[in-house]
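Co-fold these.
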Amino acid sequence: DTEVTQTPKHLVMGMTNKKSLKCEQHMGHRAMYWYKQKAKKPPELMFVYSYEKLSINESVPSRFSPECPNSSLLNLHLHALQPEDSALYLCASSTPTGEDSQPQHFGDGTRLSIL
Amino acid sequence: DQQVKQNSPSLSVQEGRISILNCDYTNSMFDYFLWYKKYPAEGPTFLISISSIKDKNEDGRFTVFLNKSAKHLSLHIVPSQPGDSAVYFCAASNTGNQFYFGTGTSLTVIP
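Predicted complex below.
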């Protein structure tokens, strides 16, 4: 069983819809991440939150809006997405680097399809 | 620009033999290296890691070797089992909460 839980597992939405992806971890990790993964490609970093503050935004379009309401939760709000945004969206958490390196733990992802 | 590379997209190995997966990196500032295993429809699962102060780390059937001068790491699986069939990603990080992933190697262990 994964210790990082992502919901929903699958999401189909139109280009005008607004939806949110959710991620939850209870490992006490203070760094949380959103990645996008296309088929046969490595995970591509989107956002990093460290101690509930956005620390890295990898030039992600504004139609993706992250939110970290508390140390256990991470959301990704979606609005006006494009078909090319269809992908697997992965959430991960870890101890922030610099505090004794620890691996990231991943959820099983949300498979997003944009119609 | 891909800072972590896995040049073999696929590898087939007979059950019981050794699987060797390779990974190269370009950034000499990386100080922490990891291997992940991914099954279809699941997220990557952490397998084993190594810090740059070591050249070898072992955990059961899995051993990771790091050659800093060559900027190369490898994962050895001995003995390989059919359940090891999956996509393996190497990853590297330095301070800054950023992890860089390779493109993955699909391992098939033939019974």
